[in-house]
């Protein structure tokens, strides 16, 4: 992973580069495999709701829990692989800390799997207080505790990694505001169009995720104390706020970490640089605050919430995502327009991600309106919105990066037929999966119901067919990644 061609890039020894490449590939392969398994879990849930598969309600909720926590974990570990790969080219990052987080993550995964499949914990990845403690015999206190401990362990690993990000960014740029481009935005330094977008995005992710994970750690510790000392009763509304702040920030941050692949790879494929400028810095600065302020749109039905908080959240929800989406989407269109880009699978996936991200936020904005939320709250509209932007926005960025790393992006050959087939199976399947969820929500079908009423079953069956296409596409992507990635050299 030598980075000698651009003077502002960091030099590493060959052995450090070799080790770093193995580490990034390990993150990608582990993450993509978990995604595939979790998609199979999603397919099973859809088939069960559609009466094509018989599973008990307790197993359904265990699968729902492992699916939720599994995809969020996979999104975190894979997007961190993408982010670390590019960030280390501009600031001196430690391979040891990167590996440490990876192994801590795997330890957390083992704890979580044990809590679900041995301990039978099925209280959803959101572990909403006081549900973990009142299972009515479905799981033990110990199982709920191990689940939360697993999450806590994973959070600690990421906090250690972010300390290394912070150290390295400060060592190179002196301050987080300089790394974010604020000194240029506010005229204290001339605008440097070569200031790396990867550094701007990573600094934003570092700030928001540090806060999000710290809030998650606080709420997990409070939940753990409550499990063993029930007389300690934290305020339920405070717990819900902290959990939604944590969950919302963490999953959004995966998108902001992965978009670095768009900034770094589209210029390679088009032969045009991605120039950072004042609107770019302003957008990323705004999103630091917006991403932390939007989560209360999930709490619009919680009447004890202070009205001002909900109003602010509603306003921020309308605007959240738009600044970075606009500069990124517009930038991507401009950089590709008449560039003569070769549409490799990697390029297609990265471009698709812009559509998925942009279109996926629209149902979220609709649901953040109080009048709409009154009807759509806790319906399948909500999974519809996040499956849209995660399946068609986040995943294409991650898989597009995997294709690049597997050597596809730089080679002269055209995409193989199997790649093209995988791409369209995935695209159509993911679009249909999300649209069926949205249509179900619009028909008032509730989310998180193991058994569906007869009039809802047709939707679940259509969703099952769509999900099979997604799994097929993903299977082809994974096979390609597993065959080509391990031996691939670092793309220059
Ligand atoms: C083949 C692909 C997938 C299928 C068929 C699928 C299906 C499902 C189903 C049936 C549910 C439960 C819906 C309900 O409330 O009744 C669900 C929940 C969820 N899915 Fe997926 N999913 C897929 C992929 C993904 C991916 C790639 C992500 C994230 C990157 C994701 C994130 C989630 C989350 C966060 C939940 C919420 C779990 C909860 O309510 O606790 N899914 N999915």
Automatic annotation (TrEMBL):
Q: Which UniProt keywords apply?
A: Electron transport, Membrane, Respiratory chain, Transmembrane, Transmembrane helix, Transport
**The keyword Nucleus is assigned to this record:** no
GO cellular component, alphabetical, reads: membrane
Extract the Pfam families matched here: COX1
Cytochrome oxidase subunit I profile domain sequence ranges: 27-492
Which residue ranges traverse the bilayer? Answer: 28-48, 60-86, 98-118, 138-163, 204-229, 241-266, 278-295, 307-337, 349-366, 386-406, 418-439, 459-483
- Tell me one GO biological process term: aerobic respiration
Spell out the molecular function terms from Gene Ontology: cytochrome-c oxidase activity; heme binding
Q: Does the keyword Membrane apply?
A: yes
Protein name, per record: Cytochrome c oxidase subunit 1
């Amino acid at each position: 992973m030598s980075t000698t061609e651009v003077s502002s890039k960091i030099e590493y020894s060959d052995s450090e580069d070799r080790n770093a490449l193995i580490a990034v590939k390990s993150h990608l392969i582990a993450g993509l495999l978990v995604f595939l398994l979790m998609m199979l879990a999603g397919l099973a849930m859809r088939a069960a709701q559609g009466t094509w598969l018989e599973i008990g309600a307790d197993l359904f909720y265990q699968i729902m829990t492992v699916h939720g926590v599994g995809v969020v974990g996979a999104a975190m570990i894979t997007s961190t692989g993408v982010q670390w790969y590019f960030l280390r080219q501009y600031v001196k990052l430690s391979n040891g800390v990167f590996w440490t987080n990876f192994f801590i993550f795997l330890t957390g995964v083992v704890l979580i799997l044990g809590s679900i499949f041995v301990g039978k914990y099925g209280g959803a990845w959101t572990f909403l207080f006081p549900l973990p403690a009142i299972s009515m015999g479905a799981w033990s206190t110990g199982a709920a505790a191990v689940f939360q401990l697993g999450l806590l362990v994973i959070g600690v690993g990421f906090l250690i990694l972010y300390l290394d990000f912070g150290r390295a960014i400060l060592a190179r740029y002196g301050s987080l505001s300089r790394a974010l481009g604020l000194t240029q935005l506010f005229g204290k330094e001339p605008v440097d169009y070569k200031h790396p977008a990867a550094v701007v995005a990573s600094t934003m992710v570092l700030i928001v995720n540090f806060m999000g994970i710290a809030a998650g750690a606080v709420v997990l510790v409070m939940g753990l104390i409550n499990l063993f000392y029930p007389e300690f009763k934290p305020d339920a509304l405070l717990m819900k706020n902290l959990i939604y702040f944590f969950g919302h920030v963490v999953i959004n941050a995966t998108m902001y970490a992965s978009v670095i692949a768009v900034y770094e790879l589209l210029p390679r494929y088009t032969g045009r640089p991605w120039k950072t400028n004042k609107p770019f810095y302003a957008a990323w600065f705004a999103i630091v605050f917006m991403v932390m302020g939007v989560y209360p749109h999930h709490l619009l039905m919680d009447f004890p919430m202070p009205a001002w908080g909900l109003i602010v959240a509603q306003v921020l929800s309308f605007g959240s995502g738009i600044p970075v989406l606009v500069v990124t989407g517009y930038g991507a269109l401009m950089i590709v327009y008449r560039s003569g880009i070769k549409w490799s699978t990697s390029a297609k996936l990265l471009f698709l991600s812009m559509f998925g991200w942009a279109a996926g936020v629209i149902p979220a904005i609709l649901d953040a309106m109080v009048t709409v939320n009154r009807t759509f709250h806790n319906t399948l509209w909500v999974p519809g919105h996040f499956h849209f932007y995660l399946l068609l926005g986040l995943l294409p960025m991650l898989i597009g990066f995997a294709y690049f790393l597997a050597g596809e992006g730089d080679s002269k050959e055209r995409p193989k037929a199997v790649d093209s087939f995988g791409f369209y199976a995935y695209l159509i399947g993911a679009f249909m999966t999300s649209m069926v969820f949205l249509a179900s929500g619009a028909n008032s079908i509730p989310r998180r119901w193991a058994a569906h009423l007869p009039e809802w079953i047709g939707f679940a069956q259509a969703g099952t067919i769509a999900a099979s296409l997604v799994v097929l596409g993903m299977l082809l992507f994974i096979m390609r990644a597993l065959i080509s990635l391990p031996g691939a050299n670092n793309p220059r």
